[in-house]
Each structure stands twice: as structure tokens, then as C-alpha cells.
Design brief:
Layout (H helix, E strand, L loop, with lengths): L2 H22 L3 E8 L14 E2 H11 L3 E6 L2 E2 L16 H7 L1 H16 L3 E6 L9 H7 L5 E5 L3 H4 L8 E4 L3 E5 L3 E2 L1 H4 L3 E7 L2 H18 L7 E6 L4 E6 L40 E2 L13 E6 L9 E2 H10 L6 E6 L17 H12 L3 E7 L8 H15 L10 E7 L11 E2 L2 E2 L15 E3 L4 E3 L6 H5 L3 E6 L2 H15 L4 E3 H7 L1
Parallel strand pairs: 1-2, 1-13, 3-5, 4-9, 5-6, 14-15, 16-17, 17-18
Antiparallel strand pairs: 1-10, 3-7, 7-8, 8-10, 11-12, 14-23, 16-21, 18-24, 19-20, 21-22, 22-23
Helix pairs in contact: 2-4, 9-10, 10-11
Organism: Canna indica (Indian-shot)
GO molecular function, one term: catalytic activity
Keywords: Signal
Length: 507
């Protein structure tokens, strides 16, 4: 072979190898993101975890074409001079110490994106006092590239809200997590989420969910809802007319594309083979970064908004708990925990997560550690449901025939200052509060076994899975699993967490 021909052959193989290497190199990257309240010096920081405020600024700042946002409400701009605000009466110096500037920076990044003519779609609930959806309305004012809609899920399910916290930038970069569009969620509330970059396949499915909610906001709910007797939850409920809680012959055709079609069953059908993303992604924030193909997934609530082969959110939580290895550990962090509904007119009993926990304690000898927030707006009957879950430990050892060595441990998480939150002034009188309203709480919602991580937006109450909009991202990627375990363990082992039994007995 001539030297020139040999050179050509070698060059061809070199280019082919480089092309193959480039095409196989993962483009998708994932980081965990966290908000840590100020004044928590004894909480260890987990290396490689990003701050929520920075992630939201990057998503807005890097957007070139479009930015879609799902939000419950807006309070990125603090209002210490508004008597109706929970920030009222705090000084400018105190607000800066609390980190209110983080919210301003995120809002400014959204204004800048809108001024760059990025197409901005905002889907939200009606908001909360004092100004409800004023901030998003201001973003849309005079900007035809900004669309702003309010969706009242109570019109569709009888109760429920848009509770998901999702940002999607340019159809490839995303935030999914517990942080609201609120300055307090960036520096005064404990939040956990995931930041995905360069992941268009995942973003495409997340956009379908966004578009489903967007479609609902423009439909007349009275034309598409029915009241039915729900056999699964033993309650009369209002649901979309294509719901699986309606017998198949009585359902309407869904106005949403790609909704799941399954024969009628009592209760919403779990998917035997839910859709997974087999996409390699890098984890730059972790020392365990791997480019292997580990499965990841999305799950959605309410179940009537699931599509194709994507699972309802409840199934994602249950299967994360059940993914634990024999003798392994499951870690669960939540703001609220109830084995029932909270907002439905007719109260329903809900044992899905409790049953899954008891099952792995018995059959897999697993340890389940649960961290529940204790704060100014703590739900009073939480204690009773946690006590009933702790009784699994008694049942585990109740018979000589039991080969049960698992256990559930539960702690309350108290962010310092939680009992001193609210406006600093009331009718010009000092209140003695140390922090603004609705702060100083662990607000994250996630579960992580020894093999699988599940990061969500929903509180662990029935309503959040069946009448409320929520999204979760889950993965078997060992780097994310290990780092989420680190975040949990830092909270669990901190002096801010105390066993439920000790707090119950002292009250």
C-alpha cells in the first residue's frame, strides 16, 4: 500500500473514532440544587451542590428562545414596607441579611430575558397575599412575548392547586424541585431540587406536561368534568371526564394528546413498565460522576395528566421506597406527612406510602428514616399518623414467626427561629418576630433508597397526588443517589433534627 493511501486509511479511522467518541459522549448534565436558610451554622454543606438562586438565574440568563415556568405563586420581590406583607416592619439591613437580594436578582434575570425577546410562558395558581400574581403580570405588561395564565385546578378536581415548581429553558435545560418563585425559598427555606442541562429528550416530555396544563387553562371545565363515586377512595369526587376513575364506557375523549388509555380498574392503574430515559449524563458536582447508561424517569400528578407510558407521581414515590435492597436504607424528607386528604370535602384515608414502608421493613429488613418538618404551620394531626407508622416496629417484633429485622425511624426537623416568624410590626407595634412569615422550614420533598433517587414537588398528602399539579424526577444514577443521601444525612445528623418520640413525649 502506498504511503499516501496508508495515511488516508489511518486518517479515516481516526476521524471515525473521534466522531464515535463525540457522539457517545453524554451531553446531559445533572446537579443537585439546594437552598439553606441563613443562621444554620451547624448544618454541614454538601460539596458540589448548587444554590437554587444561582440555578434559576442561569436558566433565565442562558435562555435564548423560550422559557416556560410553572409556579404556585410569586413573591420574588420583598415588601417590608407593605403592612399586608409578612415582610412588614423589617429594616433594609435585616432584609439584606435575610437574603432578599437573591429574589430581586432572579426577578431581574427574568426581566432581562423578557427584554431580550425570549418567549416566556408562565403558568400559575392564583397566588397568595399580599399581591397574588402581580409580579408575573408586571412581567407580561407591554411585552407581547410574555404570556401569563392562571389555572384553577379546583375547577377540574373540586380542590387542588398548581403546586409544581418547574423551569424549562430553550427545550433542554430544567429545574424541578421544591423551591417556589419566592425570595424566601432561596435563603430562608430549606429546599432541594435537580438542575438538568443539555437534556432535550427529558425536556420534551416535561414540555408535554406543561402544555397539558396550558391547554386546561383555556378549556371550559364544566364541559369536561364529571362527578363520580370513586370506589378506590370511597368518596364522591369531581374529576376530568377522561379520568380512569370513570368507567370506560362513560369516559369522554381526552382533549390532551397522548393520554394513557387503559381498561377500567378500581383506582388509577399503576404501569407495569413505566417509561424510562436511558440517557447517559454527567454529574459535575460529584466525585462519582459516571457516563454509564443509568435509567431515569419523570412522574406526574394528578394522574389524569399522565401521558404515553409515564407514571403517576404516587407510583414514582412508592417504587422508590420499594427499590431498596435487602437490608438497605430508605431516606424520606418532606414538609408534611398525612395518611389522608387535607382539602377534599369528603375526607379520604390514604395509606400508599405507609404500606410501602411497612412492606420493606417486614420483607426486606430495611431501615426507613423519615424527616418531617416541624414549623409555625405544622399540621396538628401529623403526630398521630407518625405514631401509627412507628407501630410497624412493634408489629415487626410481634411474633416468634416473624423474621423481621427492619425498622422505621422518624425525626422532626426544626429550623432555628421557626417559632418567631411573621411580620416585625403589627399596626406599628413590634411583634418580636425574628424572621418574615412562612420561613424557617424544611420544604424539600424527596426519597432516596440505596439505588434510586426521587426528587419531587409534592407534600406527602393524598391531595398532592390526586388533585394537585406536581412533577418528580427520578434516577438510578449512583452519583445523584449518593449526593442526595449526603444531603439527607447532613440534615438527619444535625442538631436541628430530633426523634419524634422525644418531642411527642415532651409536649
Amino acid at each position: 500500500m502506498k504511503p499516501s493511501s496508508l495515511f488516508f486509511v489511518l486518517f479515516f479511522f481516526a476521524v471515525a473514532a473521534a466522531s464515535s467518541s463525540s457522539s457517545s459522549r453524554p451531553q446531559c448534565k445533572a446537579w443537585l440544587a439546594q437552598s439553606i436558610p441563613t443562621d444554620m451554622p451547624l448544618l454541614p454543606r454538601v460539596p458540589g451542590v448548587l444554590s437554587t438562586g444561582e440555578v434559576l438565574r442561569w436558566l433565565a440568563g442562558n435562555a435564548t428562545k423560550r422559557l416556560d415556568i410553572i409556579a404556585q405563586y410569586w413573591q420574588l420581590l420583598a415588601q417590608p414596607e407593605n403592612p399586608k406583607s409578612g415582610d412588614y416592619g423589617f429594616s433594609a439591613e435585616e432584609m439584606e441579611r435575610f437574603g432578599a437580594g437573591e429574589g430581586r436578582a432572579v426577578y431581574k434575570s427574568l426581566e432581562d430575558a423578557a427584554d431580550r425577546k425570549v418567549d416566556l410562558r408562565i403558568l400559575q395558581h392564583s397566588g397568595v397575599a399580599p399581591d397574588f400574581d402581580q409580579e408575573s403580570a408586571d412581567l407580561a405588561l407591554g411585552r407581547p412575548n410574555v404570556q401569563n395564565v392562571t389555572l384553577l385546578l379546583g375547577d377540574w378536581w373540586g380542590s387542588g392547586i398548581v403546586h409544581a415548581k418547574v423551569w424549562i429553558s430553550d427545550g433542554k435545560d430544567m429545574y424541578i424541585g421544591s423551591a417556589n418563585n419566592d425570595w424566601k425559598s432561596l435563603t430562608q427555606v430549606k429546599e432541594v431540587g435537580v438542575y438538568l442541562v443539555g437534556c432535550p429528550k427529558i425536556a420534551k416530555q416535561l414540555e408535554i406536561y406543561f402544555n397539558n396544563l396550558w391547554t386546561l387553562s383555556f378549556l371550559n371545565s364544566t364541559d369536561y368534568t364529571k362527578k363520580v363515586w370513586d370506589k378506590q377512595w370511597q368518596a364522591k369526587r369531581k374529576v376530568p371526564c377522561w379520568s380512569h376513575f370513570i368507567h370506560e364506557k362513560d369516559r369522554c375523549r381526552s382533549p390532551l394528546p397522548s393520554t394513557i388509555v387503559i381498561d377500567h380498574v378500581d383506582g388509577y392503574p399503576a404501569l407495569s413498565d413505566p417509561s424510562m430515559f436511558h440517557i447517559p449524563f454527567e454529574t459535575p458536582g460529584s466525585n462519582l460522576s459516571s457516563t454509564s447508561h443509568y435509567s431515569s424517569y419523570l412522574s406526574f400528578a394528578p394522574p389524569e395528566l399522565s401521558f404515553r407510558k409515564f407514571q403517576a407521581d404516587e407510583q414514582g414515590w412508592v417504587e422508590t421506597i420499594k427499590s431498596v435492597r435487602f437490608g438497605g436504607t430508605v431516606r424520606i424528607s418532606t414538609m408534611d406527612w398525612l395518611g389522608q386528604s387535607q382539602y377534599l370535602t369528603q375526607t379520604v384515608y390514604w395509606s400508599s406510602l405507609s404500606s410501602a414502608i411497612s412492606e420493606v421493613i417486614f420483607s426486606k429488613r430495611a431501615t426507613v428514616n423519615i424527616l418531617v418538618a416541624y414549623w409555625a404551620h405544622f399540621i396538628e394531626n401529623t403526630d398521630q399518623y407518625l405514631k401509627s407508622l412507628l407501630y410497624s416496629n412493634v408489629l415487626c417484633q410481634s411474633s416468634k414467626y416473624n423474621h423481621c429485622q427492619g425498622k422505621v425511624n422518624i425525626k422532626y426537623y426544626k429550623v432555628p427561629g421557626f417559632e418567631k416568624t411573621g411580620a416585625a410590626k403589627s399596626k406599628n407595634n413590634a411583634t418580636g418576630n425574628l424572621y418574615p412569615s412562612y420561613t424557617r422550614v424544611n420544604h424539600g420533598k424527596y426519597a432516596v433508597s440505596d439505588v434510586r433517587a426521587h426528587i419531587g414537588t409534592s407534600n406527602l398528602i393524598w391531595d398532592y397526588f390526586y388533585t394537585t399539579a406536581g412533577v418528580s424526577f427520578g434516577t438510578y444514577h449512583p452519583a445523584i443517589v449518593a449526593q442526595l443521601q449526603e444531603i439527607f444525612d447532613a440534615d438527619w445528623n444535625s442538631p436541628y433534627a430530633a426523634p419524634v418520640e422525644s418531642l411527642i413525649s415532651s409536649e
